[in-house]
Amino acid sequence: MKLSIVMTTYNGMEYIKDQLDSIANQKRKADEVLIYDDGSNDGTIEFIEYYINNNGLNNTWKLIVNEENKGWRRNFVEGIWSSIGDLVFPCDQDDIWHENKLEIVGNIMTENPQIQVLTTNVTNLYDNGDRKPSDNQDGKIVKVSWKKHIFRVDAPGCVYCIRRGLVNKSMNYYRVEYAHDDYFWKLGLFADGLYNFNKDLIDYRRHDDSTFSVETRKNRNVNARIRWIDMALDYCDDLTDYVNNDDTIVEKDKKVSVIRRNRKYLNLRKKFYETGNPLLIFQMLRYRDCYLKSRQLLGDIYIKYISK
Fold this sequence. Notes:
Layout lengths: L2 E7 L6 H9 L7 E6 L6 H11 L6 E5 L6 H11 L4 E5 L4 E2 L3 H11 L5 E10 L4 E2 L8 E3 L17 E3 H7 L9 H11 L3 E13 L4 H8 L3 H24 L6 H24 L3 H6 L11 H10 L3
Parallel strand pairs: 1-2, 1-4, 2-3, 6-10
Antiparallel strand pairs: 4-9, 5-10, 6-7, 6-9, 8-10
Helix pairs in contact: 8-9
């Protein structure tokens, strides 16, 4: 079984060596390491080239510098599509992989062909050097149920392992606004093939100024929420097509019904943000099970009426 690593980089000189070292030092070596740089100007490109040449990695490692800045979403997904491995591991530029990550995950995927997407726990690594392991280290492989919440994603994309078959299917339903972690989580979820391994296999850097953190803060306004809802509605369309068209997916009617209910909730939220009609709040209460968190409805009210 061939293993591919797909890393994306952009001005990552501060931490890139630690990540490259952790990949090169894996007990089970990757058969392919693809590094897609999105136009770095801080020396990242030159350092990666030096690292590959200096360590004799030219046969399996490849640096690709994008001709245009694609943005991290498109860069990751197109990189994943270009890989050839039976298992594909997305990889951030600033984490540190534990030396047995590929070995452990590769063995789990070999022994459990029903798993389409496998995630793992992480040890949080903070800018001051502090490390905080996750609370659950029991080593169990736990299935994630599609009945819980279709828009909740519980793992960062850098801990994913994606089976080739799902990578191939993903080309049929992708839109450029979808993030790879969000997208492959949902595909694995509705295929009944999403699992988590309860053990930390990477040190995951936490930055207040990360791209994701900055985007999250910017999304706390009406227009941004409407854009998110529109994207979620697109997901409803694409997931419905995915469930209906994939012959390997079971309980199609039940899954489509869940998607349909989420679509109704999303349309109510969008109408509330557009009109501010307080009567819609009572209708939205009927869909509390669709909210990511119980207090999210209060967040909608705050953003619409109070926040500027």
